[in-house]
Specification:
The complex is a heterodimer of chains A (223) and B (213). Chain A is α+β, with helices and mostly antiparallel strands. Chain A folds into 2 domains: 21-121, Cyclin A, domain 1, CATH 1.10.472; 141-221, SH3 type barrels. Chain A has 9 helices and 5 strands; from the N terminus they run αααααααββαβαββ. Chain A has a 5-stranded antiparallel β-sheet. In chain A, helix 1 (30-43) packs parallel to helix 4 (70-84). Chain B has 213 residues and is an alpha/beta fold. In chain B, helix 3 packs across helix 4. The chains are: A alpha+beta (223), B alpha/beta (213). Chains A and B meet through helix 1, helix 2, helix 4, helix 7 and strand 2 of A and helix 1, helix 2, helix 7, helix 8 and helix 9 of B. Strand 4 (208-215) of chain A pairs parallel with strand 3 of chain B, so a sheet runs across the interface.
Chain lengths: 223, 213
């Protein structure tokens, strides 16, 4: 979707103002820690995947996405998924009070403290075997297809319609556009090099290039 | 570091939230606990893992080993996932790693324009600026100016390569080994490797910076 999350090349945000590395805490507020932990713990219930989570944060009014802090966007996405997947009702969420326990099968999957190291260490593979051969080889010229799906995609706007060169083949990886709809399908993934001039024209930074990981379905051969 | 006039000047999107947000999170957690969907002790353990155990010192050790051991460096550049896993750094948000090397001719920089993808097992959770709109918007379009804001001025002949983390591939930048570090141990070298150098917005520290040479 052409949402506010797709930020590459946007103007107007001003300077970055990084905090000095040695002084920045991992979390800046106690509530951020709880949102982080809640997101990972709720994710362990198995009701959604990472692409569904990302899409839940993206599916917001662009003004809200940009105005809210990072972990506030996580909170919005989590609340949305909890209701959409039937883990809590909208009424329970509003009241902060349960009308009854979750079903037993779901409660059996609750992440326990002792399982945390193992769950973090054994997160699922992102590659997935498929039967077809990759269509492109390193060195091939490709164009990022000009497409504007209303659902989740990882083809950023700033590369659409632009021509680059296959830098490397990464194997077949879970295809995010379908994964965000709950379907786990593999598709060939490539690192594509775009010269800055191909992306930004006369405003390009001299002597720079952008490497973008793009799935085969985002690409077509270019002359 | 740079921005000394704004050491703690968070952007408008990083302002401290109103307290009703804290209350909203508390309410959500108590609801989920009451329904039996989360265990607060597991949440504590998740937080503790990334506050105290998994952070950029992991990546610094990887870089220091690559600087010290040519065979390890080659392995890291060819199969970063396996090379990094050999040091027991693996798992969530590091399932498919790539290491890219800075050289006298090429400087690399990592970003995630679409969200906040970042190699957790080696760098921990990303800093606020990495997730911020200005960095995500500008790193791909205006990298030389972005680097300048971090105090990194590169000669014009050095090519800048920006790696946008649009897939589950996670990038670790291998900085150049600073001069004057011949014979240093891996532990000593690791002290020169900052988190920002492994994202690519800075170079590794010089021995002078940490009071040596």
């Amino acid at each position: 979707m052409n949402g506010a999350h797709d930020l590459g090349g946007m103007h107007g945000f001003g300077a970055i103002h990084p905090e000095p590395e040695g002084e920045e805490p991992v979390f800046h507020n106690a509530w951020e820690k709880r949102v982080f932990g809640l997101q990972l713990a709720a994710g362990a219930l198995g009701k959604w995947n990472i692409d569904i989570s990302r899409h839940a944060r993206e599916r917001q009014h662009p003004v809200n996405y940009l105005r809210q802090t990072y972990y506030e966007n996580w909170l919005v996405g989590l609340e949305k998924l909890l209701v959409e997947r039937g883990l809590v009702t909208a009424e329970e969420l509003a009241a902060g009070k349960a009308t009854g326990p979750a079903d037993e099968a779901t409660r059996e999957r609750v992440l326990k403290a002792g399982q945390v190291p193992e769950v973090l260490a054994t997160s699922g593979p992102v590659t997935i075997a498929i039967d077809t051969a990759p269509r492109f080889q390193p060195g091939d010229r490709v164009r990022a297809i000009n497409r504007h799906p209303s659902g989740h995609t990882r083809e950023p706007r700033y590369v659409r319609g632009r021509t680059g060169v296959i830098h490397e083949y990464h194997g077949a990886h879970v295809f995010p556009d379908r994964s965000a709809e709950g379907s786990k399908e593999g598709e060939h993934l490539y690192s594509v090099r775009f010269e800055a001039s191909a992306l930004w024209g006369e405003n390009a930074t001299e002597g720079s290039a952008v490497y973008v990981d793009l799935w085969e379905g985002y690409l077509e051969p270019a002359p | 570091m740079m921005n000394s006039e704004h050491p703690h000047d968070h952007d408008h999107d990083q302002t401290n939230p109103p307290s009703d947000l804290a209350l909203r999170v508390k309410s959500l957690e108590s609801l989920l606990v009451e329904k039996g969907l989360v265990d607060p002790a597991a949440i504590d353990a998740l937080i503790d893992t990334y506050e105290t155990r998994i952070g950029p010192r992991n990546g610094a050790r990887v870089v220091a080993r690559a600087w010290s051991d040519p065979a390890f460096k080659q392995w890291l550049l060819e199969d970063a996932t396996a090379a990094i896993a050999s040091m027991d750094y693996s798992g969530r948000q590091g399932e498919y790693m790539k290491a890219v090397e800075n050289t006298p001719k090429v400087h690399n920089l990592a970003v995630c324009t679409l969200c906040s993808c970042y190699p957790w097992p080696v760098l921990g959770l990303p800093p606020v600026w990495y997730k911020s709109a200005p960095y995500r918007a500008r790193a791909v379009a205006d990298p030389r100016a972005v680097l300048k804001e971090f105090g990194t001025e590169l000669d014009e002949h050095i090519e800048i390569r920006v790696w946008d983390s649009t897939s589950e591939v996670r990038y670790l930048i291998l900085p150049e080994r600073p001069e004057g570090t011949e014979g240093w141990s891996e532990d000593e070298l690791a002290a020169l490797v900052t988190r920002n150098a492994m994202i690519g917005v800075e170079k590794a520290r010089s021995p002078r910076y940490i009071g040596r040479n």
